[in-house]
Structures
1.
Amino acid sequence: MPVKDLTMPRGRYSLHDPHDHTPLGEEHFQCAPGPSGWRYVAQRTSPSGHHTGSVDLTLDELGRPLRVELHAASWRVRGAALDGVTWVRTDPSGEHATEGNVRAHAFTGTSPAFLVAVSRLLRLEPGAGAVRVRLVAFTDPVLAPLTLDQSWALLDRTGHATDTGPLMVDEYQVSEVDTGEVRTVHIAGDVVLAAPGIELEELESPPSSFPS
């Protein structure tokens, strides 16, 4: 269930296929830094408005996944950083559960939360060069695990004037090592402003800043 703390910024992303732009639905989220690091909770809906799943991700102060819980198509995944990353995936009937463990740095998936999480984990500086990171992705629609490698580089960090003060926007280049596919991702604080397949449609308050 979404966190009821009204101090957590709320917003809405629209999701679409990055190749043919087919609408995939929306993600209604809340997120904010806290004493343990950062938490993001969201409910996902189909293009017709039906509930399709949820995301609950908590990072520690270093950006490592303290806890992740995903729901989609009656499948459920719970995971955390433990001897790499460890997770349990449960089938729709609830009768069978499979465990997994990979020497990886973090999790990823279609939720914008995972882009923020990886950027927080790497803490790159502009012009410092690309860093390779191993991730376990939970793929739609049944949260099947897939281990992959990405290369992240922080190309630029620019300030934009807003009514509440300057907004720092980071421009990342994210490359899939196996396929060579390259994406550009723009992140401000703990909010993804734009990325292939992701558009920020609503945000009730400015993005939160992480402590240095």
Note: Confidence is low (pLDDT under 50) at residues 1-6.
2.
Amino acid sequence: MSYPAELYHGDQGEVSGTLWKGDSPPDLVIGGRTNVHYLATGASTGGQYGLYRWDMGEQPGGPGPHFHKTMSESFFVLSGVVGLYDGDTWINAVPGDFLFVPPGGIHAFRNPEGPASMLLLFAPGAPRESYFEELAEVAASGRRLGEEEWADIYRRHDQYMV
């Protein structure tokens, strides 16, 4: 394996880092039970990756098993217990545990024992914010979507439920 093509062509480097403070308020609240922090979006990283802090509340929940065709997804547990599904087995992951899922890999997550926090990394960076925001809007409105409506949302956001 070799290094990828250069993305920066200068000789001196530049001051360009962005600091995100840990006590920043969430960028999005989904259904009053999940706070999402947009640490680095696909747009802000030039499509290289998207990184999000996912804080789940007391009420257990999470998406069902699914896969993505265009990106990998990685999970790093920060606090609490996060149920991670690797396509074969559910594992109760604890702080420091990490799961990498390549494109096409079936996976899911949930918070089986109350509050938990993790980092989600999508590579390459995709516009996941629009998916998260659509989920938040559906939850906030109280609308009940039919199977075809959910299928349309999932299709538009590279989410294939199994």
Note: The chain has a mean pLDDT of 96.
